[in-house]
Amino acid sequence: MKKTAILITSLILMVLLGYSQAPYTIIHFDSTIRSVRDAIKLNNSEFIIVGNSKYIQGQNSKIFIAKVNTDGDILWKKEHQGLMAWNSSICAKSDGNYYIALEDTANSAILLETNQIGDSIWSFTSTEPELFNKYFGSIKEFPDGKFVLSEAIRSNMYPFPVMESNYYILNSAGAVISKFEAINEEIWDLEIISENEFIAAEFSWKYGINKYNTDGQILNIDSCFEFPETDCIMWELFRMS
Fold it and tell me: Does 129 have pLDDT greater than 60?
């Protein structure tokens, strides 16, 4: 009876301890990393992460791509010129390389392709006039090897709201197949749903999940919330929440 009671107590403690554990793993990085903007989990439980390196006075900002394990140990790390902010992202290509969408420090957007160990293969830069700031955001791959890339253009004087957002359809080599405008001003994220269709989380005075095909046709509009155009305070609070 005593052994049974001990066994039952042990099982209860095991269950309670199991439920008390956090459903995530905290990874601490070294002091050379200022911020992590996006990550991809690999099949072996290692991660590819991208973000901003620690700022050094008098030097231009640099982004990094690194491979880390679940203990936060950096297995390799490569730096490249540019800045990851807003909705910048990384996409694992089916050929094993990576696309990184980011900003430059000169009001322009950069799409960078690296090999499997983070070395640069090529980069594409898209520049706006001096008074405007452009960046590339989310990028995702279709099953047939095409990509959809989001773009936003802001005013340097009035960064909110975004003035214009666009989608690029790219081939596997990064060449532009087509370009079309988003319904709303700002694109938060993308998800591929078929060979020629994707959905996008967009923000404007109408915030919604909208569906497009690769020809730029709008397949449906789902407005989740609506704000009066003059209610700027509510709009800003919604962005910060």
Answer: yes
